[in-house]
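User: Show me an example of a complex going from sequences to structure tokens.

Assistant: Sure. Here are the input components:
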Amino acid sequence: MFKPGRHFLQIPGPTNVPDDVLRAMDQPTMDHRSPEFGVLGLRALSSIKTVFKTAGDVIIYPASGTGAWEAALANTLSPGDKVLMCETGQFASLWRKLALRLGLEPQVIETDWRTGADVAAIAAALQADTGHRIKAVCVVHNETSTGCTSDIKAVRAALGNAEHPALLMVDVISSLGSIDYRHDDWGVDVTVGGSQKGLMLPPGLSFNAVSTKARAAAAKGSMRHSYWNWEEMLKANSTGFFPYTPATNLLYGLVAAVDRLHAEGLDTVFARHQRHAEATRRAVRAWGLEVLCRTPEHYSGALTAVLMPDGHSADAFRKVVHQQLNMSLGNGLGRLADRVFRIGHLGDFNDLMLAGTLSGVEMGLKLAGVPHQSGGLQAALEYLTDTASGVCDAQAA
Amino acid sequence: MFKPGRHFLQIPGPTNVPDDVLRAMDQPTMDHRSPEFGVLGLRALSSIKTVFKTAGDVIIYPASGTGAWEAALANTLSPGDKVLMCETGQFASLWRKLALRLGLEPQVIETDWRTGADVAAIAAALQADTGHRIKAVCVVHNETSTGCTSDIKAVRAALGNAEHPALLMVDVISSLGSIDYRHDDWGVDVTVGGSQKGLMLPPGLSFNAVSTKARAAAAKGSMRHSYWNWEEMLKANSTGFFPYTPATNLLYGLVAAVDRLHAEGLDTVFARHQRHAEATRRAVRAWGLEVLCRTPEHYSGALTAVLMPDGHSADAFRKVVHQQLNMSLGNGLGRLADRVFRIGHLGDFNDLMLAGTLSGVEMGLKLAGVPHQSGGLQAALEYLTDTASGVCDAQAA
Amino acid sequence: MFKPGRHFLQIPGPTNVPDDVLRAMDQPTMDHRSPEFGVLGLRALSSIKTVFKTAGDVIIYPASGTGAWEAALANTLSPGDKVLMCETGQFASLWRKLALRLGLEPQVIETDWRTGADVAAIAAALQADTGHRIKAVCVVHNETSTGCTSDIKAVRAALGNAEHPALLMVDVISSLGSIDYRHDDWGVDVTVGGSQKGLMLPPGLSFNAVSTKARAAAAKGSMRHSYWNWEEMLKANSTGFFPYTPATNLLYGLVAAVDRLHAEGLDTVFARHQRHAEATRRAVRAWGLEVLCRTPEHYSGALTAVLMPDGHSADAFRKVVHQQLNMSLGNGLGRLADRVFRIGHLGDFNDLMLAGTLSGVEMGLKLAGVPHQSGGLQAALEYLTDTASGVCDAQAA
Amino acid sequence: MFKPGRHFLQIPGPTNVPDDVLRAMDQPTMDHRSPEFGVLGLRALSSIKTVFKTAGDVIIYPASGTGAWEAALANTLSPGDKVLMCETGQFASLWRKLALRLGLEPQVIETDWRTGADVAAIAAALQADTGHRIKAVCVVHNETSTGCTSDIKAVRAALGNAEHPALLMVDVISSLGSIDYRHDDWGVDVTVGGSQKGLMLPPGLSFNAVSTKARAAAAKGSMRHSYWNWEEMLKANSTGFFPYTPATNLLYGLVAAVDRLHAEGLDTVFARHQRHAEATRRAVRAWGLEVLCRTPEHYSGALTAVLMPDGHSADAFRKVVHQQLNMSLGNGLGRLADRVFRIGHLGDFNDLMLAGTLSGVEMGLKLAGVPHQSGGLQAALEYLTDTASGVCDAQAA
């Protein structure tokens, strides 16, 4: 069935790729060994560092985020190494599964998937690990499956307090470019990112931001791998080149996308996401529904997961929204399957796109026969209106 | 100031050009005398006829709609000819001004710019013109400045009843492809269209659909012109070519755009526009504002003009919406300047885009301090939801 | 039949549109009454002036070049006015035909279509016109049908010597942006240009560069027209807007295209065209064929028309080239039909594209059984090679 | 320095991406878990099989070809396994290096890098391996660094004759879609491909075509990896989905690119490449230079590597060509560094593009002061002309 108008892609990534980023990629592929490519490569590499907020190195892989997860572990660790993993949701769970496949021994700190990483438990585990068997602590900054963020700074403090030498590895796949994150300031050793969320690019690029300590660990890691090898990358990167053929056209887009982030200003970008998230939560509450994240300090700026009323299928609801309203919402993953739907409000987004999105949720709830009160959209609009001037003044000031 | 997300282009044209139409135009320009061009030309010419609903000829000009207005008059009439023109709004008024410049003598039937053409007055004027001095009756099907349509079928009946030989000329610039229109069935002699509204193309093409009677008149018209000449066009068009260089890349887009209209189905397209117009009017009334068009039978499916409360500037309101909410609304034109704003809901559009649009109006009214009641958006959503299933069922049936 | 690889579009326009110009147009259409549009409009208007080399005004029409021809005459002249027209080829002939349709009285100075305008004859005609009945002198700067240029400076001198007040109107449709041209320096009153040749844009825009004297004449011209009206345009243009909907997306491209011309440098652009023209002529001579233009001082930098040996059809040859070699060459027009083929070497072009083009001609001559000597390409390559360093040094200096 | 016209990208990949393939990718990214994506995924997966000529499975990775090399080895083998590798050039050498990193034990059969794999030596090695310690034989079908192909069918016969159970793994990165290759017919177990050569896509996708035997081996392989895991991929692929986010926009392009290959016809595509390769070799010989590949049965249809005369730097020559002629040629790799240049004539290519390319080489040789005879281009043109008709007739028949 033909669906007129623009599709509302409101999953928590891939996000809407801005027209000028798409057009930047819609250019002839160039010789990746030419002088012109070196200029592009250096620009791409320096651009991406500003988003991770690191003065150190960022590796760019022609790969999905899953590849960058593997790269982080494969470069720095050795089979049999113990890793402390915080299972805050489905993606943390998948990272753990990947670690198992690589022969690592994950020690898991669980949550109920409705909050951030349990920093107290992490601290306790580190304190208990007097033999320093734990080689890395792995945390997902923004759990895409739950809409809960974790306090990375506090995790670093826990490591510091325990005087524990483990590496700190953080997944920012769905927070990079949408939620405040600081690789260097927060003392992260390996940050794992992807292109298709806050960076507003199609999928196909992923990243490892690496600390000096991580590189030193890599020199000793004994895991067998080649594609993910940091040192070869960094050697070639020093002149803007890559050891194997890079995803050239995505690099064109990367430069354009980071330019956009800075044109808006990273802090403005982050504030925009927080404001849209708050508007969304107000809508959810007005509908009489429940936000999955139960701890406000962990609310995500990038997405909001919403619990369905008992006895109602989230997927049936999402199907109605998709078919009748031309909008994609995120599904519940893993143990949350069919129990939540997720509203992505990240990337290249604005107030009226959010209003359209929340309108679609409100219409869909009614069309799908999900018990709710109307007025969610109205609540969101009031908040957006009340805070619109403020945002405007702040920008003018 | 950087504005994230997609701009809401809610003027009554140019409208949003669909991505695949833009991409169809983003192709190398071809030799306009090559055999491949002939194939394209024939396809473009036959495509556009289906939208005018004519088995006759449609001329495609590389020009704006204003050019096609001039072409309609210049081909068929002679200096000093009397033309009966219905001044339903600013565009009708501009067409009259153009007629004056060409040396024609417009006899004007006015309205208050809040309704369609006055068919009774047209009928009376035709009856009174026993000498048949009136050579053409000119009506704007959808007045883009007011959001009022005119009853073309009734105008034709008036001509018939009066047994008057005048040509019937109709401007469908903002109704073509968005509001039901039938060049042949309604006995129109010259229909004037443009690319940038319901056809979902950038501006740069305009059209004259011409009846046999119009071509016969053209053979006798003594106005001096060359670019607009129908006969040279039709001669070259017979094999898919043009007498001078056509706007090749817009023709690529034309074929793609008409394919889209038929993929959705013209009747479905028209019903969609009517439904969105009704939803918009419900919002307007719920805000306590007034729809400019005061006669429901003339409501436009393509746009809704809204009267501002006394003492409030429509342009000040539009400026707030533009700056703070990244949406363009249409301004009041001519005697309506600063007194109305116009909401375009035509072209490549859907429910959630309309919801975003009306959200922007509601937020803007508050931000600009325009007295209104909230709840307009809610009223629109209810209507859209209530009618969504029906639309769906109808399509499934 | 599927044809792999890039088509060689070697007609003398439309020319190859550079990828970044195509991409600049592949952007959402904007509100032509928004503040952002005003910025774009001013930029487009000031950009195009630099290519005409005028400090005065340039009108941008959403129309083909034929429209701009009409605009030049319709604004400044009155029915019955005498115009001195130099029939240097098919396009000059078409301009004359257009003048006749507008009720003007062309006095024609003919050539054999193998050279530039006959300046002596122009001078004589002006001297003879003591009553100043001639209101305008019309010359085509670069005859696209013959590959002969005319000496505009000399025509101006002829007007000056005769102390004749006629306007000087020049068609630069196929020379603008490819052959040196100076609207102000050469004292031209109306210069007529188009988008699809040296400007490297798709067709759909055309131009009138107008002198103060031309505007004064326009104030008195009595021809009936509206679309082409300069004064309304200039009034709106002063703030970057247009009196009717402009071809927005082509304006995006216009800005990008002019930026390209200046990135290369206009003088470098002109020298490149001359060098490619000379290489082409060397190839033609080495094949034992004849360049149509018989007077070297009128050789065109934009295209080269080549005479076919007697008894051989240029169109049959062109068909072979098109079908078997995926290249479009220009056909003979008017009295030259089937007797010449035209090689376009203008626009976004370089040495290797020319080498591919001339290879296609040489292969095509053999495939089509046209008597010739081989070695034309070799001769061109030698010239290109010999002059390559010089060009390089000059740029480095 | 600004370089007008189209860059000649004549490296042996990445190749020129056709405009419609670029435009197919220049579309909004979609939800990779939506029903629409499932349709796309199935189409992409079935499309790519036709190019590998397999009825079995093809894995699509969001990764470079290097990743697909790793995937082939990591899925099927275990650390310590012996692999017979044919070092036919730099890429074979890099694959060996990768195998070493994965803990495999390569047994290397060398060549002088001027011919295909030594099948007799492979046969002997397999015969000698009575204990079947060799688990896989790895051959590069088309060595991108040398322009020599290897006889895969003969290698399979050697395995058969020796009744050896080793897997046959073949790299077709630069032959897929440009040189005849048959995964099933030739009994290959794992074929490794990439997107950026004969497939005419940007880099970013790579492939493993896998036999039933290879999947059985994978069930037993003990190498630690996750991203490359075939079984998870195939499980998700069965409904058109992927276990992690795929490179969506490249998949759009993949479907468009394979459609192009079939529109031309795979056999026609292969014949075109062979014909262009022969034309290139004739040019090389006429210049008095030497084709690197010394055994005609191993000539590559995709590229031609050319030996520089002693004492002349290939890189200095390439730099002249790049700077002065706007063309990229491939450099010598590994032990061939600075001694050869490589002409890519693969992908979306035609006669006149080849003529432009060879013109650039001939001009560059002169500009760089490399001793040679002129006339190479002439020789190529003669061959292209003589064979043009035949090709045409064959297509018409």
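The lines above are the inputs; the final block is the predicted structure for all four components together. The longest strand of chain B covers residues 134-140.
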